[in-house]
Amino acid sequence: MKVFRGLPNAESRAPCALTIGNFDGVHLGHQALLAQVREAAGRFGLDAAVMTFEPHPREFFAQLLGKPEIAPARIANLRDKLQSLTNAGIDRVIVEHFGSHFAALSPQDFIEKILVQGLHVRWLMVGDDFCFGARRAGNLQTLIEAGREHGFEVHSMPTVTNAGVRISSSAVRAALAAGDLQLARQLLGHSYAITGHVVHGKKLGRTIGFPTLNMRVGHKRPALSGIFVVQVHGLAAQPLPAVASLGVRPTVDDSGRVLLETHLLDFQGDCYGKLLRVEFLKKLRDEEKYVDLPTLTAAIARDADQARAYFAQNGGFAISATDRI
Q: Distance from first CA to last CA of the chain, Å, rounded?
């Protein structure tokens, strides 16, 4: 899969079947849409392409208003989003920077400069509630009329449901915020996971008997937080059992920086720089601030014991249908 930051150069602008969206989480609804894009691309001899945005448009407008707290929590980092799009068989991804210039494009300019000239769209699919352009002035009907003028087909994707409930990124966020990893799995089609490189930390964990693998979380508002039973992919032939904390570490750090800290239950080795995937299996509790390190250490010990009990009950590890980095 080819990834472009912004529009491809002239030599790379092959005609494409395209869909547009944030694709946060690439849930089952997204996957159904992507399957149709891939089918159309094969049928017409086109590249299957996705245009997505960084940052999320709602993050941009929240910052513009000076209210970052109203931006949606992030389900996936860009690496995991791109991997999900690769898994879906997409040939090209255009990661468009969503800033003031892009937000100010009129619907007509978006169609002519982005879709027609920039991407050579021949077939387009969007959600039935898709809006675009400055002040969200463009909609599905705008695209249909433009398609007739510029020679590309436009199709809309109806809502995909799970037990009668609409599958959406908002529904996935709500499930993760509630710690309902089973519901999140049903909406995503796989277990929730975060991929990243192991970085050096303050080495505090090893001084209290619980060394951790540290992974930075690029966005300040992850959809998930707390203490979890997890398994780690990428260090051995099978996933390794572990317990993890995802949050701001209020007992030992007041910076507000979000970190994923994972303590492997039965593994020792140098993991710095390795690309790992942490798969979340069960939420144990919310993150807490403790009065001192001994109290924190005792809480971590209880978490590790609960994780060991979980894996003992489940045969040592839980095989994932998506065991890949």
A: 15
* HEC secondary structure over 97-140: ECCHHHHCCCHHHHHHHHHHHHCCEEEEEEECCCEECHHHCEEH
Containing 64, the helix (H) or strand (E) segment is: helix 57-64
Residues 6 or more apart whose CB falls under 8 angstroms from that of 34 comprise 19, 26, 48, 50, 85, 88, 89, 90
* pLDDT of residue 220 exceeding 90: no
**Among candidate residues 305, 202, 323, the one with its CA nearest the CA of residue 252:** 202
Query: Which run of H or E residues covers position 294?
Result: helix 293-313
Q: Give residue 219's pLDDT band: very low, low, confident or very high (50, 70, 90).
A: confident
Distance of CA 252 to the CA centre of its chain: 28
What is the per-residue pLDDT across 17-61, written as a single tens digit (0 to 9) for each?
999 999 999 999 999 999 999 999 999 999 999 999 999 999 999
214: exposed, middle or buried (Cβ count in 10 Å: 0-12, 13-18, 19+): buried
For the residues 239-261, what does the mean pLDDT come to?
A: 80
Average pLDDT, the chain: 89
The Cα 161–Cα 177 span in angstroms is 20
DSSP state of 57: H
